[in-house]
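Troubleshooting log. The previous structure file for this entry was overwritten by mistake, so regenerating from the original sequence record. Sequence copied from the archived sheet and checked twice against the printout by T.R.
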Amino acid sequence: MSDTAKPLEIVHDSANQVFLAVVDGHTCELEYQLSGNVMTITHTGVPSPVGGRGIAALLTKFAVQVAEASGWKIVPACGYAATWFERNPEYGHLLA
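Regenerated output below.
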């Protein structure tokens, strides 16, 4: 394992409405459904071997930034996303 943490590379697969990141061979994901200009975050998943590293938070922030840049509102339907918005009130203006 390297001493230098490389930045998380997140891929937005808009066709499948998911944000993906592979960490140490494990696929982490944030799934959403887009209806008009409302993104509903339906699932955030980080496998336990790579859990506890803040990956879900990075995926959520990336998804929120994409939504904001696209002019979308957000419904945090999964528990993790709802908690993330509670912890990051500066993004509250994006809630649908």
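The radius of gyration is 13 Å. Archived copy saved in two places this time.
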